Amino acid sequence: MTIGTIHGVGLGPGAADLMSVRADRLVRGARHVAYFRKSGRRGHARTIVDGMLRDDVVEYPMDYPVTTEIVFTDPRYNECLAAFYATCTAHILSLVQGGEDVVVLCEGDPFFYGSFMHLHSRLKDHAPVAVVPGITGMSGAWTASGAPITWGDDVLTVAMATLPEAELTRRIAETDALVVMKIGRHLPKLRRAIAAAGREGQAWLVEHAAQAAERVRPLVEVEDAPAPYFSIALIHGQGRRP
């Protein structure tokens, strides 16, 4: 029997019309579609492709067993997620070994801080895996801000707000241009780090880039409540130009 292929398909930051032609073709033609989501939610990736799937599609939602309930430094966090990814891998592998292709829907780009990477590392030695790149969330964010993120020789740093505050402050101070992801409840810490780096007046917060609820504000105007999941902080580079 011919073995199937797993397609990790990047959907872009949120608007369906920002999807590539290849991604659109694979999504519309897929018999088996898998996607990650928080338990009890529809899932952002699934929402992006609403109305695009064929009538006889078989969906495989992969519900995260944990998100913020256990801190990632706790050994139980990795143990729980490792078991989860093993279960997802086994199911997808059983489909492709039966000759079926599987499209895994990925927000943004599959190889940029995405959950698909954990499937890829477990599947790549056992079945064909193809990856379709997508526009990243950070690209959607700096486009929404209306200004280029880098010029000339600017160095761009992509940091997670989950970093320790001192490390976050150091990286913000040393870079020319900045993208910060995974903000959520870490917004107050990020504010302090940006202020300590002396760059508070340069920072912007973009929420829901390339989505209907898109909002762009200077960070100094943002309240101290937890930021939405789809939030990205930016500091634009001001480097060399003609």
Automatic annotation (TrEMBL):
Superkingdom in the source lineage: Bacteria
Listed EC numbers: 2.1.1.130
GO biological process: cobalamin biosynthetic process; methylation
Keyword Transferase: yes
Span of domain Tetrapyrrole methylase: 5-217
Database matches in Pfam families: TP_methylase
Molecular function (Gene Ontology), one example: precorrin-2 C20-methyltransferase activity
Pathway: Cofactor biosynthesis; adenosylcobalamin biosynthesis
Keyword field contains Zinc-finger: no
Protein name: Precorrin-2 C(20)-methyltransferase
Species of origin: Sphingomonas zeae
Lineage, opening ranks: Bacteria, Pseudomonadati, Pseudomonadota, Alphaproteobacteria, Sphingomonadales
